[in-house]
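ugh ok so i messed up the first submission bc i forgot one of the chains. this is the corrected input, ALL of the components this time, i swear. 474 residues overall. if the numbers dont match what u have on ur side tell me asap before i send this to the collaborators (the ones from the other lab, u know who)
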Amino acid sequence: MNPADGAMPVRDEAQDDRAQAIRDALHDAIVERRLAPGAKLVETEVGELFEVSRTVVRASLQMLAFEGLVKIERNRGAFVAHPTPDEARQIFESRRVIEPEIAERATERLTDADIERFQAHLKEEARLLAERGPNARRAAIKASGEYHLLLASVAANQILERFMRELIARSSLVIALYGQSGASSCARPEHADILDALIARDGKKAADAIRHHIDHIEEDLDYKVVASAPLRHVLRL
Amino acid sequence: MNPADGAMPVRDEAQDDRAQAIRDALHDAIVERRLAPGAKLVETEVGELFEVSRTVVRASLQMLAFEGLVKIERNRGAFVAHPTPDEARQIFESRRVIEPEIAERATERLTDADIERFQAHLKEEARLLAERGPNARRAAIKASGEYHLLLASVAANQILERFMRELIARSSLVIALYGQSGASSCARPEHADILDALIARDGKKAADAIRHHIDHIEEDLDYKVVASAPLRHVLRL
DNA sequence: AGCGATCAAATTGTATGCAATCTGACGATG
DNA sequence: CATCGTCAGATTGCATACAATTTGATCGCT
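and heres the new structure output, hopefully the right one now
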């Protein structure tokens, strides 16, 4: 996979060159877990890093807040989201609603070029899983999510694709918080299974494969074990 | 239905009291078709109406842009969205993916209080359809959308509910642009049929009823007849 | 020491000023 | 008369200044 496409702009047309760039950078940092859930994002600090005023930073933070990756509390600031177990369940329920349908639609539209992209991606995923070290692990997590986004792009529905982008990013946060083994579900060859169903043009099978895959991801979670308590949310504030 | 709940704030917790209020007002104006697709929203103008600075207005417009109700073009300003036929198809495809599943989940969670809310809403819808005049028509359109949101709220998934809110609002724009008879689909007793299936606890039947309902809404559209051309989008810019 | 009030530093919320850009009009030129 | 260039007005993009709010610390009192 092209190493430059990590940004993957959310809006069709660039509207705020700079705000969008900052959003992308923060988005990646959150998804790759370089920014922990609950971390505070101070406007002036971010602004100095990117050499822009707070105005632009605020726009970026608002974007991330809309996507659910950041939570803005009035007069207190912006924090990397810290999904509750309940939110986590809703995220996966939403994925169970949307992704199987996306898979069915993707089956009908899959081109040879798409297949090549999938295969190249699978190869890259395997390579990252074989590597050791935290950076490889981070890259593997990110690549795993991008597989699902690749699937969404094939379905040719920009709205559902955007919904998926949000759900994938938030899933990454959930896994960071509640994931157990961290890699057990990723190690399964389920991504390859899904691709097989697509190539066979079997929509039902592809949808089922996705459902099972989501089941397995969620099975690896333990909502009891909260690594870093969000302090304020624990007491339902 | 409570006449004060038209705003229906998008974000769980109030974050920008004022920006949110302006967003709600503009949202209602767009959904009720007091603001035509393509209309320009000048920052200073809106700001004077609500007696706030452009800063706050910009935040509101950004919110609406994220929901797809407003399109912001760099250095040109914010315009009420003007969905293309292709976008319209994607909106309804997305609804076909999400709403039947919402109906199934709602079936499992429906309480007596919910049923009463539905019935009160149906009564109000019937009343508005019987009335004449553009204001009654507007209110009927809005109420029709709110029925679907009521359904979404029963499903107890805030994420899917938010997705639905966006899709319903954008559907309203699509119907404004491409709707033919304007009321044929609304006149059908399909909302009541859906409620019957819910009460019968028949998830499959409810899902089918929703699917048929969406089919009928879309059948009433004619993508050929574009009332007010968006000029710039016609030529794929 | 424990407790509470007051204050200062840090941070966000909002308004406003200036620069950049777009738009439409006017006028010069062929 | 048509066409193009220039310019003024309007509008947005961005930075910055000031107000409001939160937060943590210090000091005094019991």
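quick check: Residues 85-109 of chain B form the longest helix (25 residues). that seems consistent at least. The radius of gyration of chain B is 18 Å.
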